[in-house]
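Notes for week 9. Today we move from apo structures to complexes. The key idea is that a small molecule is not decoration. When we ask for a structure prediction with zinc ion present, the ligand SMILES becomes part of the input, just like the chain. The input block below holds both the sequence and the ligand string. Read it once before you look at the output, and try to guess where the molecule might sit.
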Amino acid sequence: MAALPSLISMMSQLIASPSISSSQSNWDQSNKGVIELLESWLSSQGFQCEIMPIPGRPNNVNLIATLGSGDGGLVLSGHTDTVPYDPDRWHSDPFKLEERDNKLYGLGSCDMKGFFAIVIDTVQKMALTNLKQPLIVLATADEETSMAGARALVSNHKIKARYALIGEPTSLTPIHAHKGILMERIRVTGQSGHSSNPALGNNAMEAMHAVMSELMRFRNRLKERYRDASFVVDYPTMNFGCIHGGDSANRICGSCDIDFDLRALPGMSNQSLIEEIAKILPNVEQQTGTQIEIKSLFPDIPSFFTPTESDIIKTCEKLTNNAASSVSFATEGPFFNQLGIETLILGPGSIDQAHQPNEFMALEQIKPMQQVLRGLIERYCVQGTPFNQPKDEEQRV
Ligand SMILES: [Zn+2]
């Protein structure tokens, strides 16, 4: 096998290759530089590398790197993109890895370019040959914005494996569940007119008041119906985030928009929630004589749940000495669930430092993470246990 750069050198090369994803086109960048680095390192270690285009995203690709073959095996997955950054608030160049106070600073150090460097360094030191089940390193695009990379994997049924670990920063705590996210906009269209006579128009802001009252009643019903004690906020939430309407105090408001999010618990369906909200609106339309539409601001992310009895959760609880828990942020986990892969989120670094100026990964997180990765690769790929046959076979038995 060809020699690789050191872990720190790989991490600094990944950080030096900008791959910001943003819904604002002035920030949005290609992730191909990061993918090329990963491809060159992984193919030098014997991995078969496939670069997968993403529909509608010509500048962004996923990388699927596979060592060994079979239907079982383990996926180690991360996203290649970072969020934008605030240049004035960084104490060092965000694209230059800098070590200070036993911490590695740089944009993407913990979220999550550092994870790839740790994975590749671990794999190299294990000198893997004759795996019983495959090891797949997966690098996705656009996680921070649309999750287009993970969605494309689902629509192409690209990945087959029994287990997956997504190395998002969880301070090495195994995460088996998170809520889903919907972000919707409701637009009320009335009729503008001179404020001196209400009969000259139909006030959209007043109709929006009725919409908000209905949404709050709906929210209370959800809170009564659904609880999950494994979450700190143990009920589904709905937040009214912004509202815009009208233009002047002396004009009847002709149009009003409200944007809100809804974070559903595992077991709740985003699609049914949107349908339930859509059913509320015609009544308000009738009562107020306005037109009301709802549209998604962003493709929804389903909730994520892997049972705590899953072998990968149990194994990672043992390897880290931490009990599985839930988080409040969303990941690509639910898309792996849709591919039938038992998945957990576990990675080095803290979410507290992600999406912040002066993002860092503490050096002390690296060794324990390598130990977890070695344990998982040994169990699921080298030994091919506890399931040394494809999932379908077992289910048929
Ligand atoms: Zn992330």
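The first strand starts at residue 48 and ends at 53.
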